[in-house]
């Protein structure tokens, strides 16, 4: 069960990272579009929380 949660967190982290990269590229080609329709700050916050959760899960395994 713990391994499944770890894999899920890793998958979500990679998925949000790719999503954020796509949003940044879209924002470069069409300024204002992404910020108007999707809150880029929310995506960055979710990435940060997933990274912290990933570090915590990996650290807990080592104890």
TrEMBL record:
The chain crosses the membrane at residues 36-57. The keyword Membrane applies. Keywords: Membrane, Transmembrane, Transmembrane helix. The keyword Membrane applies. This is Uncharacterized protein. It comes from Candidatus Falkowbacteria bacterium RIFOXYC2_FULL_36_12.
